[in-house]
Amino acid sequence: MREALKQDPQFARYCRAQWCIGAANLMMMPVNTIVLTRVLQLSYTVSNALLDVIPKLVTLLMLPIWARLFDRVGVLRFRVINSMCWSASVLLCGLGTMLAELTTQPWDIAFFAAMYVFLLGRLADGMGQSGGAIAWNIGHLHFAEGDKAELYMGIHVSLTGVRGLTAPFVGSLVFAWIGWGVFVPSLICSMLGHSIFSGLAREEAGRQREIRTRSASDGPPTTPRVKKPARKRRAPDDGA
Q1: Residue 16 in contact with residue 9, Cβ under 8 Å?
Q2: Cβ contacts of 92 within 8 Å, gap of 6 or more
Q3: CA 195, 198, 204, 205 torsion-angle sign
Q4: Are 140 and 152 in contact (CB under 8 A)?
Q5: 17, 14, 13, 10: which is closest to 190 by C-alpha?
């Protein structure tokens, strides 16, 4: 894995950006559960609706829209836009956590504000999941050449598993340590991933402009003009 990432720095940066986005989202997942069930003391039905049902519905509804966008802009620009949804989700859920900590009694203003902001955060999370479902499966093929597709997919899946095993526990520990402030390192991590995706997209756009400029300066290929042979004049018919 290390050797493959060293030989392809572009793919290494892509994996680094995915790590940042995924880790930030995974850090907030246990925090959202703790806040909704213990701080806001919501029922199982309402908590499950916010944590799972609403994001899944948004994911299904947004898939056709994300698919058309993916076909139009390509992997890297798609990831730039998609990562904005993840960052918005982290920010909104973090603000919801802060408002939940300010709740002094059930059904006060802070409670309803926290619920509203959490709802927006879960909608943004569903949008992020919808786009991520497309890019996660085929994004690595943008970098794989020839027979490297399976290797790159293996690297991608392995890194996903590592952050899935570590990031939620890190989020829980940070929340136990600094409370609602957990969204600050999560947001920084998410914005870092967005920045890496943006850099990769700008570099790709620059290479494409350079190719178009070079093609335009060279001009269309020309073929030598072949001179047609002179047409022989037919002798007048003498009736012989």
Answers
A1: no
A2: 117, 118, 120, 121, 124
A3: negative
A4: yes
A5: 17
- Alpha-carbon distance of 65 to 59, in angstroms, equals 10
pLDDT tens digits, one per residue of 179-198: 888 999 999 999 999 999 99
Q: Is the pLDDT of residue 220 over 70?
A: no
* Burial class of residue 193 in the structure, from the number of CB atoms within 10 Å of its CB (0-12 exposed, 13-18 middle, 19+ buried): buried
Torsion, Cα of 106, 109, 111, 116 (10° steps): 150
Task: Quote the CA–CA distance of 100 and 96 in Å, as a whole number.
Answer: 6
The whole-angstrom separation of Cα 63 and Cα 127 is: 9
Domain extents in the chain: 2-218
Beta strands, E only, 92-157: none
Residue 122 phi, psi (nearest 5): -75, -30
- Report the alpha-carbon distance of residue 195 to residue 13 in Å, rounded: 11
For 239: left if phi > 0, alpha if psi spans -120 to 50, otherwise beta; the answer is left
This prediction's pTM? 0.83
Residue 68's H or E segment, with its range, is: helix 54-73
CATH, domain range 2-218: 1.20.1250.20
Q: Rounded to an integer, what distance in angstroms lies between the CA atom of residue 132 and that of residue 227?
A: 60
